[in-house]
Amino acid sequence: MAIQSARIRVLRDEPPREGADYVLYLMQQSQRAAFNPALELAVEEAGSLGLPVLVCFGLLDGANGFPEANARHYAFMLEGLSEVAAALERRGIAFLLRRGTPPEVALDLSQRAALLVLDRGYLTIQRRWYAEIEKGAGCRVVQVEGDVVVPVETASTKHEYAARTLRPKLNKRFDEFLEALKPRKVAKSAEGLGLKGGLDVSDPEKLLKILTLDTVVGPVKRFRGGHGEASRRLKEFLKAAFEGYGAGRNKPEAGAASHMSPYLHFGQISPVEIGLAIRAAKVGDADDRSAYLEELIVRRELAMNHVFHTDGYDRYETALPDWARKTLAEHADDPRPHLYSEEALAEGKTHDHYWNVAMREMRETGYMHNQLRMYWGKKILEWSPTPAEGFAVTLRLNNRYFLDGRDANSFTNVAWVYGLHDRPWQTRKIFGSVRYQSGNSLKKFDAKAYERAVARLCEAERR
C-alpha cells in the first residue's frame, strides 16, 4: 500500500523545520479525505515527526474568484468540502477553510509547518499557484499526484498526437498504479492547535450565500457533491447500468453513464478508486471493462497530456494542430445558412430541436451525455461567423453551465471539435477537412426517449 514514488515530487528539498507545530497539506485539486495519496503522505510524514496534520484550502471568490466559476460550481464544491471537514475531524486531522488564493493561505500557514504537502493539477492557474508556493515557502515542499492513474510525465514526456499514440504507453504502466490506498493511522491529534480565521463549511448552503459569486447560473439538484455521493453513484452504476456499458455508452437514453465526471473534476473521487471498482465488478464483461477504462484512463489522461504540454490550450490560435487551423481558415468565408448569437445558443433558441434539448439538459442540470456534447460543439462551429468565434463561444458555454467545465477534459474536448487529436476527413463547406457531424448522428439512438428523459430531469430541478 505504499505511495508510488512516481507520484511524489520534491519541490523544495530541505529538511523538515524543527520546532514546527504541524505538517501542512494544501488541499486544492484532491478535494477528498478518502483515497488521497497527498493526504496520506502528510499523515505519514507527521507520524515520523510526532506532529499533527493540518489540511488547508484557499477559497477564491470576488475579484480573486476562480476564472469562470459560478454559484453552480461553488455549491457542488462546498458540499464536498463539508464532507471533507467532517471526515478529517473524525481522524484527528484539522481542516481550515480560508478566503484567499491557495498560495496566500498555504504560505501564511507554512510558517508554522515542518513541511508542506501539495496535490497536483495541470491547468495554467494551478501550475501558477504551485510555482508561487515553491518560490515563497520557507520549508520543505512535496507534491503528490493523486488525480490521474499514471502520472503525466511517467506516461509521456511529449504532447501526444492522439489516443492511439498515448494508449500503448498507458497500457504498459497503469497496472502498477491501479493499487489500493489504505488510510494511515494518525499519530497525534490536531485538537487544540488554536487555529483562527477559518470559514464554517458545515452548512454549505449558508456559506454559499456570503460569498461574492456569479449567481446567474445557480446550483442544481441533479448532483450533490462529495466523496460519499460519488461512491454511492458508482456502486449504483455498477449494480444497475454497467452490464452492457460497451454497447450502451453512446446511447444517452440508455442510462449507461456513471456520471463520475463532476466528481473527478473536483477531485472528490480518485480515478484509481474508480478503476479498481470497475475491475472488481461482478457484472459486465471484458468489453464493458475495456470501454470504461478507455474513457477513465486513456481519454481522460490524453486531456491531461494536452493541457500540460500546450501553452494556450484555451485559445483557438494555440490549442489546435496546424492542419486544422489551415483548413478552417480556407473555409472561413463559406456561407453559413444559420448564425446564432451566444445568447440564443445559451437559451436553446435554434432551428435544431434536439440540439435545443441537449442545451436544455446542460443549462438546467449541469450535464450532457458525451454522445451529444460532440454534436453540440460541432453545430456551434457550423453556426458561428468564424471558427475562432465558435471556439470561444463553445468554451464559454461549456465552462459556464457544465459542473465539470473548466477541466482539462473540457479544454481538450472543445479543441477536438476543431480538429485536435483527430485526422483530416473529407473536405466540405465550413469545416474543411475537420470532422463533420450531421443530424444523422441523432439516428444512432432514440432521440425522443432522450428528450423525455431530459424533460423529467428538468422538471425535477423545478420542484
TrEMBL record:
Single GO molecular function: DNA binding
Domain Photolyase/cryptochrome alpha/beta span(s) in chain numbering: 21-152
Gene Ontology biological process: photoreactive repair
Cofactor: (6R)-5,10-methylene-5,6,7,8-tetrahydrofolate; FAD
Top-level lineage group: Bacteria
Top-rank EC class of the record's enzyme: lyase
Catalytic reactions on record: cyclobutadipyrimidine (in DNA) = 2 pyrimidine residues (in DNA)
This enzyme's EC code(s): 4.1.99.3
Record's keyword annotation contains RNA-binding: no
Keyword vocabulary terms for this entry: DNA damage, DNA repair, DNA-binding, FAD, Flavoprotein, Lyase
Family: Belongs to the DNA photolyase class-2 family.
The name this protein goes by in its record: Deoxyribodipyrimidine photo-lyase
